[in-house]
Design goal:
By secondary structure, the chain is α/β, with parallel strands linked by helices. Helices cover 37% and strands 18% of the residues. The strands form three sheets. The chain has an eight-stranded parallel beta barrel with strand order 4-5-7-8-9-10-11-12, surrounded by four helices. The mean pLDDT is 96. The structure holds 2-keto-3-deoxygluconate and magnesium ion. 2-keto-3-deoxygluconate (KDG) binds next to loops.
Length: 417
């Protein structure tokens, strides 16, 4: 299908929308980001995030070598057909690299069409469903005391929801605890080896939340990320032990490849469960949602095939009263955040959005119009998703290889990170 097809009822003419160029931009303003820029004959361009933490160049190559040649000459207005072409037409389906690459194309096309229509992207999705997007920030500390102080600081900044993580006695580099200014797990060229102890962790986490409720009262929403470290029965025990502290959610309590595992957690606890930041397809979540084993789905736009696919996932989740809670760590670029906020502004079954601040350098490379106010993020009204890239500045921050850590038990056994 190309731009010589008959004109269609979409923003701009088919000629305006013809894709004339597409480029992959890799930059490291503090951490690596991969961005796809698609340009149309009209001069209007769109941006899509293609960042897959620790595996950035795999997606860059998938796009540059295998996807971009297929885009030239296509009508940018055919968003669905392009999605189907890249997924259904490609034979090799799913997987994080493929779905991140497809997401980058998809988001860039939504951006182009919204810009040509002169509308903020949320309007194309069906319009505004809420005034602002509830977000949660990340508080962490080397111990319970420090974590509680951090939660207090987030509340002072206006946050209404805070994720809390703390050090675990005897555990070297526990997940989620910062050593510098902010928590950035991909810190070295080869993976850092961390050591994990489930008994020590299961002991400390209920104490952390007991303290947080005592210090900060009943109104603040509290969240916690287990980061796949527990077996199903351990996860059930933690979810039950945390019930008195009324968490907004307990995240990734056990690895989700075995979706039946969540039945065990459900049998023992009413703590709400969130899963799916590593999911890349509706199929990863199908049983979890259908069987009502989770409360929030975290699969997000950049890793799950873009707006076109995540919209399908969100609609399916809505049928089962499962709400969205998109992944939004700093390894998802401002381009993903912009697109996610437009989606969050529209999606009827919105739950919450994760929000970690990017560095000043990242914000400078990716100028954007979303703003944080009183515990919520607000997308802008500019046409498109509202995030741009300063390519000259991006070039000043060349790619630096970084990988995520790995975890082992004290006896050396490889564990889930
Ligand atoms: O790339 C990995 C990070 O995004 C991940 O470790 C962060 O679990 C995470 C979260 O909930 O933000
Ligand atoms: Mg997580």
């Amino acid at each position: 299908m190309n731009a010589s097809a008959p004109d269609e009822g979409c923003a701009g003419s088919v000629r305006d929308r013809e894709i004339v160029a597409a480029r992959v931009i890799v930059t490291c303003p503090g951490r690596n980001f991969v961005t796809l820029k698609i340009e149309t004959r009209s001069g209007v361009y769109g941006l899509g995030d293609a960042t897959l933490n620790g595996r950035e160049l795999a997606v860059a190559s998938y796009l540059a070598d295998h996807v971009v040649p297929n885009l030239i000459g296509r009508d940018a207005g055919r968003i669905e057909d392009t999605w189907q072409f890249l997924y259904r037409g490609a034979y090799w389906r799913r997987g994080p690299v493929t779905m991140t690459a497809i997401a980058a194309v998809d988001v860039a096309l939504w951006d182009i069409v919204a810009k040509l229509a002169g509308m903020p992207l949320y309007q194309l999705l069906g319009g505004r469903s809420r005034e602002g997007v509830l977000v949660y920030g990340h508080a962490n500390g080397r111990d319970i005391e420090e974590a509680s102080e951090q939660v207090g600081r987030y509340i002072e900044k206006g946050f209404r929801a805070v994720r809390a993580q703390c050090g675990v006695p005897g555990v070297h580099k526990p997940y989620g605890v910062a050593r510098g200014k902010a928590y950035e797990p991909a810190e070295s060229e080869l993976p850092v080896e961390t050591v994990w102890s489930t008994p020590a962790y299961l002991n400390v986490v209920p104490q952390l939340f007991e303290r947080l409720r005592a210090d900060h009262g009943p109104d603040i929403e509290l969240l916690h990320d287990v980061h796949h470290r527990l077996t199903p029965i351990e996860a059930a025990r933690l979810a039950r032990d945390l019930e008195p502290y009324r968490l907004f959610w307990l995240e990734d309590a056990t690895p989700a490849e075995n979706q039946r595992a969540f039945e065990l957690i459900r049998r023992h606890s009413v703590t709400p469960l969130a899963v799916g930041e590593v999911f890349n397809s509706i199929w990863d979540a199908k049983h979890l949602i259908e069987a009502q084993l989770i409360d929030f789905i975290r699969a997000t736009i950049v890793h799950a095939g873009g707006i076109t696919h995540v919209r399908r996932l969100a609609d399916f989740a809505a049928l089962h009263q499962v709400r969205t809670g998109f992944h939004g760590a700093t390894d998802l670029s401002p381009v993903c955040m912009g697109a996610a906020l437009h989606f969050d502004t529209w999606v009827p079954n919105f739950g919450i959005q994760e929000y970690m601040f990017h560095t000043e350098e990242t914000d400078a490379v990716f100028p954007h119009d979303y703003v944080f106010r009183e515990g919520r993020l607000h997308c802008g009204e500019r046409p498109g998703h509202g995030v741009d890239i300063d390519e000259a500045l991006a070039r000043k921050f060349p790619y630096r290889p970084k990988q995520l850590p790995v975890a082992r038990l004290a006896d050396g056994t490889m564990w889930d990170w």
